[in-house]
Amino acid sequence: MSKPEETAQAGDAGLNVPETEIESNWDTVTDNFDDMELKPELLRGIYAYGFERPSAIQARAVVPVIKGHDVIAQAQSGTGKTATYSIAILQRIDPSIKAVQALILAPTRELAQQIQKVVIALGDYMNVDCHACIGGTNVREDMAKLQDGCQVVVGTPGRVYDMINRRAFKTDKLKMFCLDEADEMLSRGFKDQMYEVFQLLPQDTQVNLLSATMPDDVLEVTKKFMRDPVRILVKRDELTLEGIKQFYIGVDKEEWKLDTLCDLYETVTITQAVIFCNTRRKVDWLTDKLHSREFTVSAMHGDMEQGQREVIMREFRSGSSRVLITTDLLARGIDVQQVSLVINYDLPSNRENYIHRIGRGGRFGRKGVAINFVTSDDIRMLRDIEQYYNTVVDEMPHDVADLI
């Protein structure tokens, strides 16, 4: 969420989320920030940031988190989950105490930095320090910043665990622990590191878990670490892909995808587009191929240097770069208001990643178009995705440009 005016529109649009989407054991809906009993300086930060009214998830989840309940909140990408726990954290911490009181974990550096920006912006009038504790940055600087004191840390599991272990990150004053994109975090890659972080936290730490999808194994893990949580869940078969037109293009062979994409390029650059590949190698290969044909694209994946990734994201956010090629892991750190087209050059290898990719295309229920390249080997996976999300992916019409 880069600009206040964009967020203001988004806040309004968030109200259109159908009530039936949220299955909750918490009935209270507070659909006005003024009624959440927030600190005046926090309320001022919320309105200055451009929010007008809470989105559906904010209207339900902010209050139970503030009251100290453990909360599991599920909502599609782009419904304002980050601001949900950021507001609650800023309400609960004591700015006069220069010690870490809230920890937010995210699966990628990009998402962690984005969360840090939201916390800083919302807490603009509160004299709150929020530090991003992420890999790819200087360890000594990290330690120095933590020793200087800050109230909120947002980070990736490996670096946070390292800082707690080195005693640079003291957890004695910690009262809140938030997991964003928990499905990604608790999947194989981060499960062990997360468990290690949990072991090092005070017993009475409040745990909040947020995600777009909530597979059974994630819910199992919540039983280990959460106490009688408030559940704010979207039913899986109603997890909305509403407002996003989904199409496929049949490409019999893998090697035909490139020509198909080149044919689509004029259509793609009408707006900003994100193209997903399943591997870092494929991202590099596709970028090189498109550059050699003199198409302008940027690429981003986990092998790149931190500084390089930041420049690429800045160019894409500002609109000076219009087409971004990336992988699943970074799908969750891309929050760009103007993206209305997503192309799955490769269908995701994990069906739960489908909504993370597509969710980028229609943030806060804005319209979006998703185009899936489907080889004969992918047909079964496409059917599986349709069934899983109870949705229909149609063959792409000739006039797709008019829909974007």
Automatic annotation (TrEMBL):
One of its GO terms (molecular function) is translation initiation factor activity. Residues 31-59 form the DEAD-box RNA helicase Q domain. InterPro entries: DEAD/DEAH_box_helicase_dom (IPR011545), EIF4A_DEADc (IPR044728), Helicase_ATP-bd (IPR014001), Helicase_C-like (IPR001650), P-loop_NTPase (IPR027417), RNA_helicase_DEAD_Q_motif (IPR014014). Belongs to the DEAD box helicase family. eIF4A subfamily. It is an enzyme of class 3 (hydrolase). ATP-dependent RNA helicase which is a subunit of the eIF4F complex involved in cap recognition and is required for mRNA binding to ribosome. In the current model of translation initiation, eIF4A unwinds RNA secondary structures in the 5'-UTR of mRNAs which is necessary to allow efficient binding of the small ribosomal subunit, and subsequent scanning for the initiator codon. A motif (Q motif) lies at residues 31-59. Residues 1-20 are annotated as: Disordered. It comes from the Eukaryota. Residues 62-232 form the Helicase ATP-binding domain. Its EC number is 3.6.4.13. Residues 243-404 form the Helicase C-terminal domain. It catalyses: ATP + H2O = ADP + phosphate + H(+). It comes from Ceraceosorus bombacis. This is ATP-dependent RNA helicase eIF4A. Pfam families: DEAD (PF00270), Helicase_C (PF00271). The lineage of its organism: Eukaryota, Fungi, Dikarya, Basidiomycota, Ustilaginomycotina. Keywords: ATP-binding, Helicase, Hydrolase, Initiation factor, Nucleotide-binding, Protein biosynthesis, RNA-binding.
